[in-house]
Amino acid sequence: MIIDSHEHLMLPIEMQIEKLNQAGVDKAILFSTVPHPERAKNLAELRGEMNILYKVLAGANNKEANRERMIKNNNELAMQMKKYPERFFGFGAVPLGMSEPETSLWIEENILSNEFKGIGEFTPGSDEQIRQLEVIFQAVNNFSNLPIWVHTFNPVTISGIHILMELCAKYPLVPVIFGHMGGSNWIDVIDFVKSHKYVYLDLSAAFASIATRIAISELPERCLYSSDAPYGEPYLYRQLIEFVSPSQEVANMVLGNNILQLLSE
Amino acid sequence: MIIDSHEHLMLPIEMQIEKLNQAGVDKAILFSTVPHPERAKNLAELRGEMNILYKVLAGANNKEANRERMIKNNNELAMQMKKYPERFFGFGAVPLGMSEPETSLWIEENILSNEFKGIGEFTPGSDEQIRQLEVIFQAVNNFSNLPIWVHTFNPVTISGIHILMELCAKYPLVPVIFGHMGGSNWIDVIDFVKSHKYVYLDLSAAFASIATRIAISELPERCLYSSDAPYGEPYLYRQLIEFVSPSQEVANMVLGNNILQLLSE
Question: Which residues contact residue A87 at a Cβ distance below 8 angstroms, ignoring those fewer than 6 apart?
Fold first, then answer.
């Protein structure tokens, strides 16, 4: 089974399915989203969509508004997914800055009740926000097998990545997916993952084919194919995996078997 | 004619030609290189190769040693290219920090004499190094049509990109290629290039297919296909261009016609 392990909800969702079909992908893991760049027809419209995201990342909204937005986005995601349950899994959003009991309650009410398989995407705008992830690590310990998906590309720096690595070392049984494989810091991230069994590499936003090739050859059982659609194309990212994998067997692991195994643990 | 407009010299050069053939690419523009990641068989060897580059970027070598290295690398590039003249053009390296007359002399002795078509890649390690590019802009005015190729991805920040934009505005007739399209700052870079006629977008190191799609749709005559091999694969980057281009005619412009036109101006 071919699974695109990281896509953001696109509207209408039939566009998402069309892209999966075009790429020969069976299922995708959907994440909620603030902007909808797939709606932009040109640069000006795209800038408008992205400015919505940048405002949220910069903390322009207050805590209460952010939580309401997340509940709304999680519910929208769950609703869209239910139209095509055979094509999608979902990961749901959890706010930072709550206590552990509050976070656990949120997970029950907004993640488990929506039948999401994991939580994220966390896009930390500062090192402080990465430190705040510790409560998430503590809370997921109360549940069985909820992988945490963290964006580790720009604007996350190597200092933020080190904080995340420390959390992984402190909570070694929590499954964590390093989104976009650390960006420019991919060599350090691959090195780290080699000695941390429950840490996974998301291969989207790949800017150097050589990085994808090395990751797959060093950690074939820990690499996860994804496109980050609508930012990346499921078809092109599948081509990338097939092109750089040392064998069809390894490509199959990366293209679906690894994430399936992780979600069923 | 399909031209990969940015590749680094790989050794043996027959490996480079094999990759061109595999991608159906007629010619490549070669740039000299410090590391040879294509030789690395695993993560440890790759780290070794890249550390050589990081030392140079961090200024570990003195000025004299750097210049000698550049002369050696330029000559090696010219020598390798001459084995297969029908498959390659070349761009040559020019050091920063020299006076304008010294820079012009260097261009005569190391660029024109080697029949290189342009200069670069400049990989500025700081805003100060981007400011030093002004001498290069002044010197190329003494020659006809020598495009300048500047790396604008990480570690170059938006502040460095703004300095480069100011230089482009101050010397509007100097052709400049923004390598990797500004990285995460691609929206700002596309916007800038729309109003600056001699500025071009290099499409390698693309981490978001949507960025490549928007660049090509907004500036079809200013986008240049490249792979940045050995970091990227010529085959995959060609697939990307063909996938996101609105028509085969536009794809052909991006895949070769635009750079051919630029080099023959």
Answer: A17, A20, A26, A27, A28
Alpha carbon distance B91, B115 (integer Å): 9
Rg (C-alpha) for chain A, rounded Å, is 17
| Structural domain total, chain A | 1
Angle between helices A209-218 and A234-244 in degrees, nearest 10: 60
- pLDDT tens for A188-238 read 999 999 999 999 999 999 999 999 999 999 999 999 999 999 999 999 999
Residue B174 CB neighbour total at 10 angstroms:
20
Domain holding B146: CATH number? 3.20.20.140
Q: What is the pLDDT of residues B148-158, one digit of tens each?
A: 999 999 999 99
Q: Is A54 on the interface with B (CB under 8 A)?
A: no
The whole-angstrom separation of Cα A152 and Cα A178 is 6
* A153/B207 touch (CB, cutoff 8 Å), yes or no: yes
How far is A124 from chain B, CA to nearest CA, in Å?
16
Quote the ipTM score. Answer: 0.94
Among the partner residues A154, A205, A236, nearest to B240 by beta-carbon distance: A236
The boundaries of the domain holding residue B138 are 3-264
Q: What pTM was computed for the model? A: 0.95
